Every structure is written in C-alpha cells, then in structure tokens.
Amino acid sequence: MSREEQQQLLDDDAEPADDDGCYPPRRDSIPWQPNPHRQLPIYTTIHRIRRLVIACIDDPYSLDQLKSPRMNTAVVRPLLDHLYDPDDVSVVWCLLVNRVQFLRQQSFQAHHQTVNVTRANLCEVLASRILRRFDEDHSGREGLLALANVLVSGFEPFQNAPPSVDRGKRAHSALAEGWFQSGRERVLTALEVAIISESKSFLAASACQKIVDAVYRGRVIYTPTAFIDILPDRYKNRRISLYDPRKAPILNQYRLIVPRNRKVIEIAQFLLLFVLYLLTMFNKATEIGPGHLQFTTVEFIFCIYGSGWVLEELASVLEHGWSVHTENLWAFMDIAFSLIYLAYFGVRMHGLRINSGPVGKQALDILSLGAPILMPRLAFCLMPENMLFIALRTMMGDFTFLTVVTVWCFGGFLLAMRWLSESQDGYASHSFLTISKWMLWIWFGLDGTGISKSVEFHSFLGPMLMVLFAFIGNTLFLTILVSILSNTYSNLAKNATAEIQFRRAVLTFEGVKSDTLFAYRPPFNVAALVILLPIKFLTTPRWFHKVNVTAVRVLNAPLLLIIAIYERKYLWQRNSKLGRPRRRHAFLDFWESFGAHADLGNVFDEEPPQSVLDEMDDIDDVFGNDVWANGYMNTIRQRRGSRQISETSSAYPVFRNRRSRGDSLLPAETW
C-alpha cells in the first residue's frame, strides 16, 4: 500500500470522527454498541460447511494435492463460489471452526485420521481463498474495514441457533457469562481460531498479513475479547474502525494496548526487570547479626517491581487462554521465571518472618536459577523473528517429551539395579540417587563408572543390565532424539516464512489487551488491583470508567504524549525496515527513464483507456463458445465495478492454456 493510498484512507473531511479518532464514527452516544453482525446465521453456516466438506472429501490428500489444478477445478473452486458471500463476513470464521473440529476428531478416530486431516486442510485452503477474494473485491477505506471485519469480528458458535439446540455443553459458559465477562457472551475472532488451529498457511496469506500488520501498528482498532478480566472496564467498546491520530485526543489511553506500542513497552519493562535482577544478585544480602540476613534496598525494589511483572504475566495467561499464550515465542521462559520468582518470594518472606538467615540464603539461591532463563529471554525478546529461536522453542517441546518418555521407560532399569544392590538383610549398598547419576553419565556418554560399579550389584546380572541400558539409551534413544530434532528443524526451515508470519500473528493478537490492568505499568498494576477493584463494587460502571481513565492518563501522560506525537507523523507512512521500499526521489525516476528497459515499467503506470478495454472484450468474445472461458469472462464483467479489469484479465491466459492442453476443467456454474 503506497503512502498516497494510506493517506486516502483517512483524508475524507465529510466523515466526522468520534472521540477516539475512529472511522466509522459512533452514530450515537450509547457507550456499548451492539454486535453489527448479530443477524448472521453462524450456527447454520458452521454445519452447512461441515456437510459440504464431508461430502466432497472421502479420500486422503496432501496439502499440495489440494492445491493442484485438478483439485482446484473439481473441489476447491466450486466450493469457493458456493460459499463466498460478500455480505457475510463469518464464512472464514466458520471454516476455521470446522478445521478445529476435524483436527480434534483425527486424534481419536484413527480409521478416519488422514481423511479428517485432509478435510481440515481443505477448510484452511477455502478460508485463504475467500479472504483473498474479499481483498480483491473491496478496495480503499471500505475494503480495509471489510477485511478487518472478517478477521477480528467476534462470533459465538451458537449465534442464531434454534431454541431447541442444547447449549449446556459449552465448557466455559458459566465463567463466560459471569463477572469476568461483565455478563456478555464469550466470542472468538477468526484470527484467534486460526492461531489455536495453527493455520499457518492461512495466517501467511497476504490478505491476512495486511490486517495483522494494520492491527499491529494500530491503524485498525477494535475492542478485543478476553477469557478472564482481572480488572474489567467494559463501559465503552470500539467497533472495528480505522484510527486517525489527527482527530484523536492527545492523551488516548487506548493506544497503550496497540501491539507495536505494547511490544516496545514490554521490552523496556523486561530490561528494567533484568537490570534489577542483576543488581540484586551482585549485591546479595549479607549477615548482619546472628541468624539474620539483611534485606537490601535493591532487593526491596526488585521484589516490588517483580511482583507487578508476575501479575502482568498472570493477566496475560488469563487474557486469551493458555493455548494462545503458550504459542508466544518466549511464553515458556516467562512462565518459568514467574514460578522461580514466586518460590523465591515465598521462601524470602518466610525467612524474614522467622528472622532466619539460612532460609533467606536459600531464597536467594532459588532466585539465582533465573539467570539461565533471563539471559536467553533477552535474546528472544530482541530477535523474535530469528529462525534459530523459533526452531529452538519448538525443539524444546520435542526434547522434553522424549526425555519424559525415556525416564519412564528406563525407570525399570533403575528399580532392578536398586533391588540387586540390596543385601540379604535388606540394606542397599547404593541409593537411588547414586544409581541415577551413573545412568545419566552413561546416557550422555560422559563417564563409565556405572559399568565398573555394576559388579557390586550382581556379578552377572548387574553388568548385563548396565551394558543393556548403555546400548539402548546411549545408542538407540540418543539417535532417535537427534533424528527427531533434525527433522523438526528442517521442517521449520523449509517453511520459514510461514513460521515467522505465524509468530507475528500470535504476537499481534496477544498484544491487543482488553484488561484494564495492562494500562498500568509494574508495579502500579499491583496498586491498581488493590485500589480500583474495591471501587468497582462501590460505583457505577460509568464512574468507574471515569476514575480508571483519569488514573491511566495521569500515570502514563509522558508515554501517551510521545505516542501521540509519533503516530501523528509516522502512523500512516510506510516502514522501510520491514522490507518495503523507500519513497523514491523524483530525480531517480527521471534518471531511470533513460534506461534501456524503462518502458517495461512505464506501460503499467496508467490504466488502459476505455477504447482498449472494449477492444479486449471483443477479442475475448472469440472464446465465447468455450464454456470455461465464457464463465470466466462473466466473472470479469461482474467484478469490473469493484476492481480494476487489468488485475483480473491477467489470469485469463492461464485458464486458456489449460483448456488448450485438453485438461478436464468443469465450469463453476455447473457444480
């Protein structure tokens, strides 16, 4: 999208703006706007898509086979023409919901496993094609809003279901309709469903990435939904709209939940936590008296700030649920450090309560375990799109799973050698810990002490068990581990672009927060929880909203001012750091106009005149007897009013060449 196109999206003085600088503006003063898509038959569409997909796919196919020309003609294109409705923005969401169901069924229906995977892949392919058609058929400001409504509009699976449908099977219905959701339904967006179903091909599509980038930068704004709000403030909601910083207030507290702004803020917060952690460990508390351990000022500041940081991590887990949060690249590191901090804090407070120096020293020893987590976490934070870190995160899961399986399988060797080491009176010459240490050394090939000591268990059975363990563990299991990790890395490297864009989508979706707690920086979020939560019970939603907005703007005034100044200048401009070309200077265009190949680009600078368009239609009418070409030209004529003819007609020779080769192509109209 060029700079001129971006400015054109907002340069419309005929449209008034509301207090948030949004387009479209609110039509009235009602703080909570009703769902604009509440009339869509979501329940019916979900089951209609499921019936069509099951009827079309009876045999397993790979993803490449589904994208082949023949499958595209016989299955994908007819379904696409049948399901696409420019007035229904819920079709993509319903397709992704069916993908989740097919993937869930493949885990417990082994005889239909590959078929269900194929059906799930077909749902993803159809969702990508329909989203692309939405992008092609809509342009300008309305097109960007239409595409955003497809991806970030919230829907509920039982919407407009018949009264006879049993809704009691919803797992979180009681929670979703309770206090944490302020009595409103728990809805999901297509972007969230794509993330939990790992629809990486869908998320890597250009149309999807256009909206992901717009949401990430704050050009498209909306009111997100949350699984659980710790400090909810839902007095107002913002419909899906374009944000114009020139018409918005200077101190706009909603800009604190923009993913790009949140990313910068979270990096700064983590750097501050890391610095306080280093200062605390380099200036450890010392003994100042018998049995007493000094509590330094740096450690006190670290405890206060760390408590706020852990509270924000807990709120992040509750915001979109465990499955979405753990898709974040560094989520497992944050969770691990939070557990270490909670253990340290509990032991440290217990040591202060009983005035025990050894207990306080034990707490600092626990805290030292955070160093192996915080150091790589800094690298993950600064290079989130590095393929090495993306692969490392996935490989850690495979390594953990295989390690658990290995410990489980080799537990029998440990018990056998422990029982062999017992004497006749029941006394064991070697403990479980000692035998486990010897087995671990043999497994990783560090030392063979266990083999030499195995004769102490039994003169024959001891060495036999230890050599058998060395053969199976060191040779077989380690070889399997290396093979699995190598295969995982090769698969990720082969789809590096899709993996990077998937992580970018996860970071964007998780960055849009609805909980008011995220508007307060640690450790002020702890104070906000203690002070504002009781106020919420004592005041009306309107007054609580006013108190909350005032507190957020006062505490974040310098930050909001910097964001407002930056966005007024750079929000709707292209970013050359993301691989997009810089704006060319006039003298460079003038210089290249003398090049030998300048005409190759100049011929596309302007649209053909109407006389040329009419001539092209006359030429294409020669193929009127061809059923496929006739149907395709009808599609061109239908879309001419909403998109440029040059964009569509460029694909026509592809279908003409397929027809000339004798391929069996069925028209979409005959399906």
From TrEMBL:
Q: Which UniProt keywords apply?
A: Membrane, Transmembrane, Transmembrane helix
Q: Which residues cross the membrane?
A: 264-282, 329-347, 399-420, 464-485, 524-544, 550-567
PANTHER family referenced in this protein's UniProt entry, alphabetically: NONSELECTIVE CATION CHANNEL PROTEIN
**Per the database record, which ranges form the YVC1 N-terminal linker helical domain?**
44-231
UniProt-annotated stretches for the region Disordered: 1-35
The name under which this protein is listed is: Receptor-activated Ca2+-permeable cation channel
Q: Which organism is it from?
A: Aureobasidium subglaciale (strain EXF-2481)
The family database entries (InterPro entries) matched by this protein are listed as: LHD_YVC1, TRP_calcium_channel, YVC1_C
Q: According to the UniProt entry, which residue ranges have a biased composition of type Acidic residues?
A: 10-21
The source's domain of life comes to Eukaryota
Which residue ranges does the record assign to the Calcium channel YVC1-like C-terminal transmembrane domain?
292-571
